[in-house]
Amino acid sequence: MFVPRTTREKVLAKLRKKVESRTPVLISSAASGLVARMLEEAGADCVNTFHGARLRANGMGTMAMLWPIVNANEQVFRNTQEDVLPAMKGDAFVCMCINANDPLRDMWGFLEQIKSLGVISVSNIGPSVSYIDRDSEIFKVLRKCGITIENEVEMLRIAKQELNMVTIGVAFTEEDSLQMIEEAKPDLFCYHAGTTKGGRKGYDSGETIEGTAERTKIVHDKCKKIMPELICIAHGAAMETPEDAQYMLDHASCEGIWTGSSTERLPIEKAVFEAGKKFAALRYTK
Description:
Elements: H1 8-20, E1 25-29, H2 33-42, E2 46-49, H3 51-57, H4 72-84, E3 93-97, H5 107-116, E4 121-123, H6 137-144, H7 149-161, E5 166-171, H8 174-184, E6 188-192, H9 209-226, E7 231-235, H10 242-251, E8 256-259, H11 265-280
Parallel strand pairs: 1-2, 1-8, 2-3, 3-4, 4-5, 5-6, 6-7, 7-8
Helix pairs in contact: 7-8, 8-9, 9-10
């Protein structure tokens, strides 16, 4: 098996061409080779792998990744190397979402390992401190322990500036978003509006798609004032269906969308359940 290789220059040239032609960029999550290949064939520009995607594929909610179930970086590295990369044809690039706050790994060496696999892009979402409410006791304790957003920012900076990788920054708050753009200057940025609703494990905060788009636009507009060339990607919360995504494209000041549950967990839940019910309903005719 030979995993296709690409370069930062080729990836960014393709993305810039799409942006200039007003064709939305599509980033989609995958925990299995089958899903990765289907997404690539469907037209995804980037297939991203991360700790939460595998847990989601096993029937858990994405946010289960915040609990210390397994070693996040070890899991996403093996999942990417063994399951996703061998299934890819090279039409889409792979972004590995990693935990920059791993105290057992040197991020320089880990990024070099990732790049050696043929993965040209990284993100900071696996998991991210930005998930945690700033006014919570756990956030204060984590920060005291050295688990910080600054480590994620530095990882993105090193990946882009020192290792010539494509970086995709992700943040859940306006404060973290602006800090990330100012200090790491990622190639792409996603304001994560929250866990996607829908299905068996989605979380519905009650927010409408209009509300999700409004919050996202505010952050994206402020980020672009700092970095006008930034490619902004919308994701999460009430963006569940293609119709929701269309609304985000039209109202959230973004150049593309990021799908996780929407093109992985939700379609699988529906398709497998419906097929299983039909087979289970079969009866002898003689």
